[in-house]
Amino acid sequence: MREWPQICSVGNDASDGSFWSRVFAASLASAQSTSPAFSVKGAFFALSVADLDASTRWYADKFGMTVVMRPPKQDKAAVAVLEGGGLTVELLQRDDAMRLAKAAPSGTSNYQIHGFFKAGVIVDDFDKALATLRARGVTIAMGPFPASETQRANVIIRDNGGNLIQIFGPSFTRAR
Description:
21% helix
Protein backbone atom coordinates (compact mmCIF):
# COMPACT_ATOMS: atom_id res chain seq x y z
CA MET A 1 0.00 0.00 0.00
CA ARG A 2 1.28 3.48 -0.83
CA GLU A 3 2.51 5.59 2.08
CA TRP A 4 1.02 9.10 2.27
CA PRO A 5 3.23 11.96 3.44
CA GLN A 6 2.68 13.26 6.95
CA ILE A 7 0.53 16.35 6.68
CA CYS A 8 0.64 17.52 10.29
CA SER A 9 4.14 19.01 10.22
CA VAL A 10 3.75 21.26 7.20
CA GLY A 11 5.84 24.42 7.44
CA ASN A 12 4.94 27.77 5.97
CA ASP A 13 8.08 28.06 3.82
CA ALA A 14 6.99 27.39 0.25
CA SER A 15 10.18 28.65 -1.40
CA ASP A 16 12.21 25.42 -1.52
CA GLY A 17 10.52 23.75 -4.53
CA SER A 18 9.51 20.79 -2.36
CA PHE A 19 6.35 18.74 -2.50
CA TRP A 20 4.84 21.05 0.14
CA SER A 21 5.63 24.16 -1.86
CA ARG A 22 3.69 22.63 -4.77
CA VAL A 23 0.81 21.77 -2.40
CA PHE A 24 0.88 25.34 -1.06
CA ALA A 25 0.84 26.77 -4.58
CA ALA A 26 -2.03 24.46 -5.58
CA SER A 27 -3.94 25.51 -2.46
CA LEU A 28 -3.59 29.18 -3.36
CA ALA A 29 -4.59 28.51 -6.95
CA SER A 30 -7.74 26.68 -5.92
CA ALA A 31 -8.84 29.00 -3.08
CA GLN A 32 -12.59 29.13 -2.65
CA SER A 33 -14.80 32.13 -2.07
CA THR A 34 -15.85 30.68 1.31
CA SER A 35 -13.46 31.96 3.97
CA PRO A 36 -12.19 29.66 6.74
CA ALA A 37 -14.60 29.38 9.68
CA PHE A 38 -11.77 29.88 12.18
CA SER A 39 -8.01 30.20 12.49
CA VAL A 40 -5.72 27.89 14.47
CA LYS A 41 -1.96 27.76 14.85
CA GLY A 42 -1.87 24.33 13.24
CA ALA A 43 -3.94 21.21 13.75
CA PHE A 44 -4.56 17.93 11.96
CA PHE A 45 -6.99 15.04 12.16
CA ALA A 46 -7.90 12.17 9.86
CA LEU A 47 -11.22 10.38 9.50
CA SER A 48 -12.43 7.21 7.87
CA VAL A 49 -15.61 8.18 6.02
CA ALA A 50 -18.42 6.33 4.25
CA ASP A 51 -18.80 8.88 1.42
CA LEU A 52 -15.64 10.76 0.44
CA ASP A 53 -17.40 13.20 -1.89
CA ALA A 54 -20.08 14.15 0.68
CA SER A 55 -17.51 14.55 3.47
CA THR A 56 -15.19 16.60 1.25
CA ARG A 57 -18.10 18.93 0.41
CA TRP A 58 -19.07 19.20 4.12
CA TYR A 59 -15.58 20.27 5.24
CA ALA A 60 -15.25 22.66 2.29
CA ASP A 61 -18.69 24.24 2.89
CA LYS A 62 -18.85 24.26 6.69
CA PHE A 63 -15.18 24.87 7.59
CA GLY A 64 -14.25 26.82 4.44
CA MET A 65 -11.44 24.40 3.59
CA THR A 66 -9.79 23.77 0.23
CA VAL A 67 -8.84 20.39 -1.25
CA VAL A 68 -5.04 20.33 -1.52
CA MET A 69 -4.58 16.67 -2.41
CA ARG A 70 -6.81 14.03 -3.97
CA PRO A 71 -4.68 11.24 -5.42
CA PRO A 72 -6.15 8.47 -7.58
CA LYS A 73 -7.84 5.64 -5.68
CA GLN A 74 -5.59 2.66 -5.04
CA ASP A 75 -5.65 -0.47 -2.91
CA LYS A 76 -9.34 -0.01 -2.02
CA ALA A 77 -8.62 3.49 -0.65
CA ALA A 78 -9.60 6.97 -1.82
CA VAL A 79 -8.17 10.00 0.00
CA ALA A 80 -8.81 13.73 0.10
CA VAL A 81 -6.76 16.21 2.12
CA LEU A 82 -8.24 19.64 2.87
CA GLU A 83 -6.65 22.70 4.46
CA GLY A 84 -7.90 26.03 5.72
CA GLY A 85 -7.35 28.40 8.63
CA GLY A 86 -4.37 26.38 9.93
CA LEU A 87 -6.31 23.10 10.03
CA THR A 88 -5.55 20.05 7.88
CA VAL A 89 -8.14 17.26 7.58
CA GLU A 90 -7.45 13.96 5.84
CA LEU A 91 -10.50 11.99 4.73
CA LEU A 92 -10.15 8.30 3.85
CA GLN A 93 -12.80 6.12 2.22
CA ARG A 94 -11.91 2.42 2.14
CA ASP A 95 -13.99 -0.18 0.31
CA ASP A 96 -13.48 -2.63 3.19
CA ALA A 97 -14.37 -0.21 6.03
CA MET A 98 -17.65 -0.51 7.92
CA ARG A 99 -19.82 1.55 10.24
CA LEU A 100 -19.45 1.23 14.01
CA ALA A 101 -22.89 -0.37 14.32
CA LYS A 102 -21.76 -3.24 12.11
CA ALA A 103 -18.24 -3.60 13.50
CA ALA A 104 -19.32 -3.39 17.15
CA PRO A 105 -23.09 -3.86 17.32
CA SER A 106 -23.26 -3.52 21.11
CA GLY A 107 -21.71 -0.03 20.96
CA THR A 108 -24.11 2.82 20.33
CA SER A 109 -21.57 5.69 20.37
CA ASN A 110 -17.99 6.01 19.18
CA TYR A 111 -16.78 6.83 22.71
CA GLN A 112 -17.77 3.28 23.78
CA ILE A 113 -14.98 1.89 21.59
CA HIS A 114 -11.34 2.33 22.62
CA GLY A 115 -9.49 4.78 20.41
CA PHE A 116 -10.20 8.28 19.17
CA PHE A 117 -13.74 9.46 19.69
CA LYS A 118 -13.39 13.17 18.92
CA ALA A 119 -10.94 15.70 17.58
CA GLY A 120 -10.50 19.29 18.68
CA VAL A 121 -8.92 22.60 17.79
CA ILE A 122 -8.14 25.78 19.70
CA VAL A 123 -9.31 28.84 17.80
CA ASP A 124 -8.25 32.47 18.09
CA ASP A 125 -11.80 33.86 18.29
CA PHE A 126 -14.29 31.41 19.80
CA ASP A 127 -17.38 33.64 19.49
CA LYS A 128 -16.69 34.35 15.81
CA ALA A 129 -16.02 30.65 15.08
CA LEU A 130 -19.26 29.64 16.82
CA ALA A 131 -21.29 32.28 14.97
CA THR A 132 -19.78 31.24 11.63
CA LEU A 133 -20.45 27.54 12.22
CA ARG A 134 -24.04 28.27 13.26
CA ALA A 135 -24.56 30.45 10.17
CA ARG A 136 -23.31 27.58 8.02
CA GLY A 137 -25.81 25.17 9.57
CA VAL A 138 -23.34 23.03 11.52
CA THR A 139 -24.99 20.69 14.04
CA ILE A 140 -24.18 21.54 17.66
CA ALA A 141 -23.86 18.27 19.61
CA MET A 142 -23.13 19.77 23.05
CA GLY A 143 -22.73 23.27 24.40
CA PRO A 144 -21.61 25.87 23.92
CA PHE A 145 -19.96 26.03 27.34
CA PRO A 146 -18.56 29.30 28.73
CA ALA A 147 -14.95 29.77 29.77
CA SER A 148 -14.28 29.34 33.46
CA GLU A 149 -11.32 28.94 35.78
CA THR A 150 -11.22 25.24 34.90
CA GLN A 151 -12.10 25.13 31.20
CA ARG A 152 -11.86 27.06 27.96
CA ALA A 153 -15.06 28.17 26.24
CA ASN A 154 -15.96 25.26 23.98
CA VAL A 155 -18.58 23.63 21.83
CA ILE A 156 -18.81 20.13 20.38
CA ILE A 157 -20.13 19.83 16.82
CA ARG A 158 -20.97 16.89 14.56
CA ASP A 159 -19.79 16.59 10.99
CA ASN A 160 -21.87 14.98 8.24
CA GLY A 161 -20.71 11.51 9.34
CA GLY A 162 -21.57 12.06 13.01
CA ASN A 163 -17.94 12.55 14.09
CA LEU A 164 -17.43 14.84 17.08
CA ILE A 165 -15.19 17.91 16.77
CA GLN A 166 -14.61 20.14 19.79
CA ILE A 167 -13.87 23.81 19.21
CA PHE A 168 -12.05 25.54 22.09
CA GLY A 169 -11.56 29.24 22.81
CA PRO A 170 -8.05 30.63 23.27
CA SER A 171 -7.92 30.80 27.07
CA PHE A 172 -9.48 30.08 30.46
CA THR A 173 -11.18 32.76 32.54
CA ARG A 174 -8.70 33.63 35.28
CA ALA A 175 -9.77 34.35 38.84
CA ARG A 176 -8.99 37.89 39.93
